[in-house]
Design brief:
CATH topology of one domain: Rossmann fold
Structural class: alpha/beta
CATH superfamily of one domain: NAD(P)-binding Rossmann-like Domain
Order of helices and strands: EHEHEHEHHEHEEHEEHEEHEEEEEH
Distance between the termini: 38 Å
Oligomer: single chain
Strand content: 15-25%
CATH architecture of one domain: 3-Layer(aba) Sandwich
Radius of gyration: 19 Å
Helix content: 25-40%
């Protein structure tokens, strides 16, 4: 039986790319009692209501910054998936106070609301940019991870367990570079910041499946990292617009050539979980929850996009893109993966 069967599920950022796909899968395959869509955009909620026709859906307007509203929304929920965030690197760099309020303080609000409501399981979505962060977005998500993991110590005798998942760029999301490249292709020229750039790549289906499995296996305190392939941004450009001219603009402030999903400093408390790596907390509460099955990773091990053993070539990228529908966005800026 699914961990979601007969449960009430709340998804923050439920009208986003991940949220909508996750909710669709849970409704279709996991037999929940109810699914609460928590977001601040009334238009997206209205459009989602028209798309979905399911009496188990509940649409709740609210912002993760609003702790009082969040506590009311979480009351009675069994599972909370925290997907709400400000994710655009340039926007977070230009609006740092707003990024901290949403990504860091908002995550604290979610954790506290879950503990106060005695939620059974809560999982927060993170990013490869949280590893050795070079920009404010990554820094806010690194702090959010620590808050969510360490929130387990506040649970006391309650049943709440909190964990995180950390993965790379999502091919089917509105925030990915794919819509930008497609728009630019219409104008005959693609722009990227550096030809050497590599990124981790995951589809929406894979991301949703991984989050679902992580909720089912979590003990509370883990950061789950999927073993996903890398791609070269120049190969992605070739897959979208073969032979098109490429303009190179130079790396933006806070942008990395390559990303990491697992830092070498985390290796000493990381287990190879088969389809993923499990970063275990270095806190006393973890001793009572037992180690994850699997062998510890080698000392000093890291998982980076440039040293990955699995790569997506042009043909594979083209196939994935053909299977994925993504929205377009303005083509005025160079690509930021």
């Amino acid at each position: 039986m699914s961990a979601f069967s007969g449960k009430t599920v709340l998804v923050t950022g439920g009208t986003g790319s991940f949220g909508q796909h996750f909710i669709s899968v849970v409704l279709d395959r996991h037999d929940p009692l109810a699914v609460r869509v928590y977001s601040r955009d009334e238009l997206k909620q209205y459009e989602m209501q028209r798309r979905f026709s399911d009496p188990r859906l509940r649409f709740l307007l609210g912002d993760v910054r609003d702790a009082e509203r969040l506590r009311r929304a979480v009351q009675g929920a069994d599972i909370v998936v925290h997907a709400a965030a400000l994710k655009q690197v340039p926007a977070c760099e230009y609006n740092p106070f707003e990024a901290v309020k949403t990504n860091t303080l908002g995550t604290q609000n979610v954790a506290e609301a879950c503990i106060d409501a005695d939620v059974w399981r809560a999982i927060a979505l993170s990013t490869d940019k949280a590893v050795n962060p070079a920009n404010l977005y990554g820094a806010t998500k690194a702090c959010a991870e620590r808050l969510f993991v360490q929130a387990n110590v506040y649970v006391g005798h309650g049943r709440t367990r909190l964990a995180c998942v950390r993965y790379g760029n999502v091919v089917g999301s509105r925030g990915s570079v794919v819509p930008l490249f497609r728009d630019q292709a219409d104008h005959g020229r693609l722009t990227l910041t550096d030809r050497r750039m590599t990124r981790f790549w995951i589809t929406l289906d894979q991301a949703v499946a991984f989050v679902t499995r992580s909720i089912e296996r979590m003990r509370g305190g883990e950061i789950f990292v999927p073993k996903i392939p890398s791609m070269r941004v120049v190969d992605l450009a070739e897959a979208i617009a073969p032979g098109i001219a490429l303009g190179v603009t130079g790396i933006r402030p806070g942008e990395k050539l390559h990303e990491a999903l697992l830092a070498s400093e985390e290796a000493r408390h990381t287990t190879d979980g088969g389809d993923c790596y499990v970063i275990e907390p270095e806190q006393p509460f973890w001793a009572d929850r037992g180690r994850e099955e699997g062998a510890p990773v080698p000392d000093g091990f890291s998982f980076t996009s440039d040293a990955n053993t699995e790569w997506l070539g042009v043909d594979e990228l083209r196939r994935l893109l053909a299977e994925t529908t993504v929205e377009r966005r303005a083509a005025t800026a160079p690509a930021v993966a």
